[in-house]
Structure to design on (126 residues):
């Protein structure tokens, strides 16, 4: 195996749940990376992730590559626009909502602990 890997997000399988107006494409396995998680989340206009999540140890950075929207971070709402970079510490519950033109976000995370470390929270927007 070489010391580099190239993949195209458009070629990765959409693994989003059937009940959300968005696409999820995860590149960690496609890149054969034990250290980095790189994901693309594409929200249709006005779409909102119906739940939130946090991590025990993984810090994440989100880069808005197109569109606009909002992030809910614990009890705060943060406006997002193209090329904003948002760092979120592990313990912060986060969720995203697209603006009128949709929202396209790249998420970069660290090494995934064995067994994962994400915890899901329902109905955080209410």
């Amino acid at each position: 195996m070489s010391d580099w890997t190239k993949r195209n997000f458009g070629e990765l399988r959409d693994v989003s749940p059937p009940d959300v107006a968005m696409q999820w494409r995860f590149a960690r396995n496609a890149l054969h990376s034990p250290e980095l998680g790189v994901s693309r989340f594409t929200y249709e206009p006005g779409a909102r992730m119906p739940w939130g999540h946090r991590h025990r140890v993984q810090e994440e950075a989100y880069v808005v590559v197109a569109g606009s929207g909002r992030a809910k971070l614990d009890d705060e709402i943060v406006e997002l626009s193209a090329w904003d970079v948002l760092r979120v510490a592990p313990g912060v519950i986060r969720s995203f909502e697209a603006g009128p033109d949709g929202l396209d976000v790249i998420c970069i995370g660290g090494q995934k602990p064995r067994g994962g470390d994400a915890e899901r929270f329902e109905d955080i927007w209410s």
The domain at 9-121 is CATH 2.60.120.10 (Jelly Rolls). The two ends are 48 Å apart (CA to CA). The mean pLDDT is 94. The chain has one domain: 9-121.
